[in-house]
Write a structure and sequence with these properties.
- Keywords: Amino-acid biosynthesis, Lyase, Pyridoxal phosphate, Threonine biosynthesis.
- This is Threonine synthase.
- By secondary structure, the chain is of the alpha/beta class.
- It has a domain of about 200 residues: Rossmann fold, CATH 3.40.50.
- Helices cover about 45% and strands about 15% of the residues.
- Helix 3 packs across helix 4, helix 3 packs antiparallel against helix 11 and helix 16 packs across helix 17.
- Bound molecules: pyridoxal-5'-phosphate (PLP).
């Protein structure tokens, strides 16, 4: 299968090239040339299939031509070493819990999958340059990618994060690992980190010396596997007798997660509509209202993994629907919430239902409460474990949040970081000696 750039100004590439390059030379994002509609028989039987069976079937539709099927199946099963259960919160509203992975956030799925795909292509390739993964993070990407790649031979990972803008728990998940993982503390905001990474990919001198690749959600090997759990959620709802008029609600930042859901929809997943739930970063929300896309600087919120002012995957959404605002708004609606509303939602949901939300999931839950119509079944993605935001959650909700053991393990490690300005020349000097 070939992959094309959303800017249509650079050559189509193979999967291996798309995974290694991350971003296309014309600054577009890669998209698969075909999105296969899965047969009716698959959806008829999906309620009886395991998560691994469902995910393997979905993975083959994209990667089956490029990776031997046995190898692909084992990559999929290895990636999905944890469940993604659907939990009923109240009548008509379900939580798709995506936080049961090693770093307690949904990005574990994409990061683990990408690490294994990249390793596969490096092993069979003949490029002798050292592979360096660059990743900008506003919080959870860094830990998921660092842990997904930890100890993988022949690949070094550099995690760029904005100084003072990620929670202490998030920070220790990528600054304490050592081995092939380096944490870089940038004096700036998330968008500066993202800009440094993008500039490195476009720098000829660096790319001649190093094989640079991205593990941000722009990478096809990170964002496509997120489609797996949308199918699995449908399977669980179907089994529970709630498989009709499904609305999937995705707390969104860079819009990689929801784009994977939209691709699942294109593959035939019977979802009635989607909601992109945002915090105060409302660029996509404004686009839905008036058709104008106006990137802005990101603002800091308590749902900080969604603090994005120029979501990368917007280009993919436009591409999927041929730039047609009407098509987009007929399938996707949006919401935007202040920190005050997010906090009130966490408290209210816990008081009424006993279900503890994290600030990101709270944005999704609130959007369903606001926009769900009679007869619809709503599922929101609970994208992180509340313990990752223990202090925030405990200050809003009258309860104590238990720390899972795997979080404690990170917090006991020694923090190691490299300080960096937001000037590209400084970052380039650092990479030159890698
Ligand atoms: C990354 C992240 C998001 C946003 O996901 P996108 O794919 O960037 O839209 C939401 N919640 C949590 C906890 C995250 O880590």
């Amino acid at each position: 299968m070939k992959y094309y750039s959303t800017n249509h100004n650079s050559p189509d590439v193979t999967l291996a090239e798309a995974v290694v390059k991350g971003l296309a030379p014309d600054r577009g994002l890669y998209m698969p040339e075909r999105i296969e509609r899965l047969p009716k028989e698959f959806f008829d039987n999906i309620g009886e299939m395991s998560f691994h069976e469902i995910a393997c079937r979905v993975a083959r539709a994209f990667f089956g031509e490029d990776i031997p099927v046995d190898r692909l199946d084992s990559i999929v099963c290895d990636t999905l070493s944890f469940p993604t259960p659907v939990v009923k919160v109240e009548p008509g509203i379900y939580s798709l819990e995506l936080f049961h992975g090693p770093t307690l956030a949904f990005k574990d799925v994409g990061a683990r999958f990408m690490a294994r795909i990249l390793q596969h292509f490096i092993k069979i390739g003949d490029d002798r340059r050292k592979v360096n993964v660059l990743v900008a993070t506003s919080g959870d990407t860094g830990s998921a990618v660092a842990n997904g790649f930890l100890g993988i031979d022949g690949i070094n990972v550099h995690v760029l994060y904005p100084k003072g803008k990620v929670s202490p728990v998030q920070e220790c998940q990528f600054t304490t690992l050592g081995r092939n993982i380096t944490a870089i503390e940038v004096d700036g905001v998330f968008d500066d980190c993202q800009r440094l990474v993008k500039s490195a990919f476009l720098d000829k001198e660096l790319n001649d010396r190093l094989l640079l690749t991205s593990a941000n959600s722009i990478n096809v090997a990170r964002f496509l596997p997120q489609a797996f759990y949308y199918f699995n959620a449908y399977s669980q709802l179907k089994k529970a007798g709630a498989g009709e008029s499904i609305v999937m609600c995705v707390p969104s930042g860079n819009f990689g997660n929801i784009t994977a859901g939209l691709i699942a929809h294109r593959m035939g997943l019977p979802v009635k509509r989607f909601i992109a739930a945002n915090n105060a970063n409302n660029v996509f929300f404004n686009y839905l209202q008036n058709g104008v896309y106006e990137p802005k600087a990101s603002v800091s919120t308590i749902a900080n993994a969604m603090d994005v002012g120029d979501p990368s995957n917007f280009a993919r959404i436009l591409d999927l629907y041929g730039n047609d605002h009407d098509r987009i708004t007929s399938l996707i609606s949006g919401t935007t919430y202040s920190d005050g509303l997010i906090s009130a939602t966490m408290a209210d949901c816990f008081d009424r239902t006993g279900y503890l939300l994290d600030p990101h999931g709270a944005v999704g839950y609130r959007a369903l409460k606001q926009l769900l119509l009679p007869g619809e079944v709503g599922v929101f993605m609970e994208t992180a474990h509340p313990a990752k935001f223990k202090d925030t959650v405990e200050s809003m909700v009258n309860t104590t949040v238990e720390m899972p053991a795997r979080l404690y393990a990170f917090m006991r490690g020694t923090r190691q970081t490299i300080p960096m300005t937001s000037e590209f020349s400084d970052f380039k000097s650092y990479l030159r000696v890698c």
